[in-house]
Amino acid sequence: MVKEKKKKIHVKLNLKEEEPHWSTGNKCLVVLLAIVLGGVNHYHVSSLFENDRHFSHLSNMEREMTFRTEMGLYYSYFKTIVSSESLTQGVYKLYRNNVTEYPDTINTLKRFNLYPELVVGALYRGFNNLGLLSEVCWTVNRGKDLDPVQSCEGLKDPPHFYLAFVWLCAGATVSILFILGVYLSDSIMGGLLASLCFFFNHGECTRVMWTPPLRESFAFPICLLQILSVSITTRSVCPNWKNLFSTAFSTSAFILCWQFAQFMLFTQCAAVFSLYILGLLHKDVFSSIIVSLLIGLLHSVALMFGNEMLFCSWFFSSLLSSLLLVLLLDGVLNHLPSLLRVPTQGVLFLVLTVGAKLALSRLLLVQDDAHVFEIFKSKFSDFKNFNTQLYTCAAEFDFLGWEMPYKISLTLLLPAAVVAVILVVLLLARAMKSVFDGSKEVITVDPAVVYNVLQAVAYAALAIMIMRLKLFLTPQLCILSSLLASPTLISSALPTCSKLNSRELQTGFIVVLLASMGVKGAQNIKEQWNIIGEYSDPQLEEMFEWIMKNTPTNAVFAGPMPTMANLLLSTERPIVNHPHYEDVGSRERTKTVYSVFSRKEVEEVYKLLEDIKVDYLVLARSWCLSIERGGCAIPELWDLEDIQNIQRPAVCPVLWKDGKPFKKVFQNQDYKILQIRRALHISPKPHSVDR
Predict the structure, then answer these.
(1) Domains of the chain (ranges, CATH numbers)
(2) Handedness of CA 579, 581, 582, 586 (dihedral sign)
């Protein structure tokens, strides 16, 4: 143990000396079980997806239509890569894209975390050029007055190739979860406990089987890999280049795959800093982790063409404050008494992080994440505006509620994780008491375990405020449950309870716990497998067919965000708004389009759409005729800001009945397309549009 001026808790640093020896046979068994468990989840999620949509028997247009909202937007860029004449041309179309936010030309690689699509698209082209891909096609008679369609199955079919990669990532998630459980608990039983908890609470751990193209489908296994890398580094006596590389690489890959990565990494930085100020991490180890995270962030910024949001993120600000405290202020703070030093460092960390965040946002003139402040402000006050309500009215952005905790309590996941946390807290309290009392008793505390507990606490705080982020929390609780299988945790936390320290008794307890978990867990799995459906949306398909046959390729469309993503994907027509709402310009453009749901004058709405160069406006019945929904219908959102028109009728229902001054060009039961005068001047001859 390295001696320092300030008192340190004795931590587990030398694994070779303090941990039981893992034989080659045990290591091979861990790898084998990880592969098997990953394969089981691969089969599980792919089967659930097929059962829900009968995906194998849909036409490719129908398959594309199943990718609603952001999913359709992301998949459209994979389609661009594989359908271009060359990979270079496909990448250029992502780099110079003028159809996603017409008339602007944007770099989608900078804006949308599209490296998964770039990698999968490049792999598809490479394998296909080598003749390694095949497919089998047949004709499907759909009935119900619908024309027969051709359906293909096999990796040569682009949707199937794309999904195959998603299912591989889903399998990797459970494999890495198992390895994390083994690593933290020093027990194969711990890894099995974590993995089975994941399966028993599958619906609360992931939604990849229902929404495969979303960013977390690719990013979450990398997130777990990054947590594993940081956990390994916390146990190192002297971190080497392998620790630095693995943490930096996984951090960079995680950021490239998911825009929400910055929030998780911010909580990680705070958790690691907490370990340091509590005396659980040596200064060199802490500095190594922070530098690795910073290198990973800088690499991702470079690969995303200087994405300003990353420089203005809470993650970057927390890294700056950590470096400032450890490099410049550490010597001064070490002279403070321990009881005063710890809270002082914690307060300084928060103050410096907030200050750096505000200063960087103002310096770089970045307002893209201003809506995040507004969302949190609306949750804890009566503040409301159009943008915050558009978010918080969606269930996934609401508070967590009691449903999720209740469900994971029935499977005993939450109680198991809580017991594990209590044991860690008791052990940490014993260690701190020993330090402050000057006792000669050596109490070992594993910093990797404490880090994962702190990470779970941070995830819980995020999930409580935004329900969507429970996808971080629930798998982390599965990881914590593995600690119950640790051969040393119970005896270290409760040394006076010698009867509980028997390994045989502990193994029996784990077996009983898994059997009890399996009662409700098996029922949850059965309920998932009982979901049987078949996708069909003839009204949307009819509209897309009409657009492709009756409008030029440079015709510009606007409408509800979810529909626009599908329209871009299936018809390849330019759109002015889309579901990716993290950019300030995109939010303003969408708000302009959504003026059709306001109570303004119809002529004013017409002029607003004409000014942003819209040719065709798409109306959806479900959106248009819903004017009251407990404050969450779009006209009610407009009423918060457009008070002067609050007594007027909503525009959209009027347009649904009578499209004037627009020109109605298409209508079926669910959709209506209105033409703007500007469209009358469009050249009917198709010409090239970058995509």
Answers:
(1) 15-36+164-523 (no CATH), 538-681 (3.40.50)
(2) positive
